[in-house]
Structures are given as C-alpha cells and as structure tokens.
Amino acid sequence: MSKSYPDALKISRRVLGALIKLNLLMGFLILALLIASLVAETWVMTGLGAPPTDTTSSLYLGIRLIMVIGIGAVPLTHIVLTRLLAIVETVRLGDPFVAENAARLQTIAWMVLGLELLHLAVGAIAAGVSTKAHPLDIDWNISLTRWLAVLLLFVLARVFEHGTRMRDELEGTV
C-alpha cells in the first residue's frame, strides 16, 4: 500500500513557484547589472573587482558576455521549472503517467542540456579573458553529475513515454 504525501506536493509546488519568481528576478537583476556596466562602467567593474586599467577591455567584454549568458539562461530555467511544476500538478491530480509528462521530461532534458552548454561557454569565456594581472575567478568547474542528470532526464522521458504507451494499450484491451 502506498502512502500519499500531500504536504510534500504542496511544498514542492510552493518551492517551484518561488523558484520561478526568483529566476525571473535574477534575470532582471543581471540585465540591470549589464545595463549599469554600460552606463557606469568604471563604477560597476570596480565593484565587481575589476578596476579599469589599460588591459581590462577584454576582461570587461568577457564579464558582459557572461552576463548575457546569464540572461539567456533565464528562459531555459523558466521552461525547466514550469514543466516540473506541471508534472507535480499531474502527481497531485493522481495521474502522472501521461504522454504530456513524457514530453515535459524530454523538454526539461533539452533545457538542462542547453544550460550545461551555456555553463561550458561561461568557463571558456572566463578562461579566455583571464590574465595573471586580471584573473576572472568565477569558481567554475565541470560536473559529471550534471551531465549524468541530463542523460537521466532523456532516459526517464523515454521510460515515461513507453510506460504511457503500454498503459494505453492495456486499457484498450480491457
């Protein structure tokens, strides 16, 4: 006999709702920082730990490119969170094994893959513009766990798709 966990679902829905709002807020704040870096370059870049010198122009470009990537990550993250919220809603309604959830998981997998590629781009930019005199230390690292999560999401989407198809066939024979 399986137990029902309505509190966990309620908490999940609230947390996802809060994360959706926080993601949008972060996107707005990064956009504001990018605009501020164009309007008040010296002040913003000094605040970010990169005071102006004769050799910081490529560093500034790199910092701005990373901001643009951060802004680009917002819609991908938004799609992940909203699709996950929709999946949680189907669990709350008692029927999570539907074709829509297989498609949602597939979409989530593609978005997380996109986020990982953006993460690689950030690391490449940081490495490309860093110098000994002006290092761009963003504490970047590559994580096998995140890449395995992408693979797991693609596999899980196929499992949901196959399970849904099997259930539909079974209901058709009864």
Pick out its properties.
174 residues, mainly alpha, 5 helices, 0% strand, elongated
Please mark out the parts with pLDDT under 50 across 5 or more consecutive residues, or reply none.
none
Terminus-to-terminus distance: 24 Å
Number of domains: 1
> Outline, from the CA principal axes?
elongated
Radius of gyration: 21 Å
> Which structural category do the helix and sheet elements fall into?
mainly alpha
The helix content is: over 70%
Quote the beta fraction: under 5%
The overall average pLDDT, rounded, is 91
Strand runs, count: 0
Number of helices: 5
Biggest β-sheet strands, sense, barrel: none
- N to C succession of SSEs: HHHHH
Descriptive account of the structure:
- The protein has one domain.
- Helix content is 80%, strand content 0%.
- The longest helix has 37 residues.
- With 174 residues, it is an all-alpha fold.
How are the elements arranged and paired?
Elements: H1 6-39, H2 41-47, H3 57-93, H4 99-129, H5 144-173
Helix pairs in contact: 1-2, 1-3, 3-4, 4-5
